Amino acid sequence: MKRLCVALFAVLLLIPRIAKAEEAFPDVPAEAAYLIEANSGRVLYAKNESARLPMASTTKIMTALLAIESGRLDELVTVPDEAVGTEGSSMYLRTGERIPLRDLVYGLMLVSGNDAAVAIAYILDGGTAAFADRMNARARALGMDDTHFVTPNGLHDPAHCTTAKDLALLGAAALENPAFAEIARTQYRKTEGTNPHTLKNKNRLLWEYEGGIGVKTGYTKAAGKCLVFAAERGGMKLVGAILNCPTMWNTAKSMLDAGFRLYTAKQFVSADTVFLIPVQNGVKKTLCAAPIRGILYPTETGGEETFAVETSLDPDLNAPVRAGDTVGSVSLLRNGVVAATVPIVAAETVEPAGFGYYLRKAVSAFFG
């Protein structure tokens, strides 16, 4: 099958923010802030988003994600002595305590247990330094180019830093993991193991904001108050990050309110759209194809943006074609610039027309 003449992108592209809507956002009294619509990647607000700053316990989003991705959540683990008595917020682990790794993640996320973070680092990698290497490798894979992890819990270290942009991207990526999303939105948890703990989530947005789904608080004297936050409404998932913000709860709410007020999700392409594409040298002359997902995109409420949908299909499609093969793409253009591109894939298999096919066709024509 010939290559498509247009570039295909399997993920939605980030695009620049629109100043008109940004100007309508309330004052954000944070040293740095960033807000995106996670499903599309559209940037809704940004302030000093690339400034490298300490992140405090928002670090634990990465620690939790790596623990989940280890595939060991249901394993009963032993709390190492190195974790016990870690300074700051704690789930009050005991040396030798047996607890499911899953519940260490709950303690990490709900009550911001610094001891849980150290325990996870030792259980997965034998120490915090090796675990930091794992954290940094995962950060690079997520495109967090301005982030450097030193500790698993965010206790201050001059080299431990991130940006509001990187944190929001991390929060959005973590929420794509169903186990992480479930833990992040949990209000209460009673742990299992030899020393049960009763946990209450410190994230007030789960109680105080309609559609709140997480994500993580943070505070140290050096970092100030930090928050990664998220909410879902009207087909949009807004994820934001604020660093060094003394009014983090009210600020997060006002940013979310503005995002939901100023933008409205619109379905430009349905996942149920069917394309009929000509096939050469196949047992069928056409095949059915469909986009791998729809394009639901946030538009400025009452704005003057222009949108167009463009489809690019392989003009020289030759059999064999297998179900799932990429045969084109559909793109959404905002103000003439590509905002999102989704591959179109074959919904059926078309085998090549061999000698037997043509023989049967000739016989049918002769006797027909």
Instruction: Give the CA-based shape.
Output: globular
Round the mean pLDDT to the nearest integer and report it: 91
| Helix share, percent | 25-40%
**Intertermini distance:** 34 Å
What is the percentage of strand-forming residues? 25-35%
Whole-number tally of structural domains? 2
CATH homology superfamily name of the largest domain: DD-peptidase/beta-lactamase superfamily
Q: Kindly report the oligomeric state of this protein.
A: single chain
Order of helices and strands: HEEHEEHHHHHEEHEEEHEEEEEEEH
Total number of strands: 16
Radius of gyration: 25 Å
Helix/strand-derived category reads alpha+beta
Supply the CATH architecture of the largest domain: 3-Layer(aba) Sandwich
> So what's the CATH class of the largest domain?
Alpha Beta
* Biggest beta sheet summary: 5 strands, antiparallel
Q: Helix tally? A: 10
Can you tell me the residue ranges where pLDDT is under 50 for at least 5 consecutive residues? 1-19
What would you say this structure looks like, in words?
The chain has 368 residues and is of the alpha+beta class. The protein has two domains: 1-20 and 270-368, Peptidoglycan synthesis regulatory factor (PBP3), Domain 2 (Sandwich); 31-263, DD-peptidase/beta-lactamase superfamily (Beta-lactamase), CATH 3.40.710. Helix content is 28%, strand content 27%. It has ten helices and 16 strands. The protein has a five-stranded antiparallel sheet with strand order 2-1-9-8-7, sandwiched between helices. Strand 5 and strand 6 (198-200) form a beta hairpin. Helix 2 (60-69) packs antiparallel against helix 3, helix 2 runs parallel beside helix 4 (114-125) and helix 3 packs antiparallel against helix 4. The radius of gyration is 25 Å and the shape is globular.
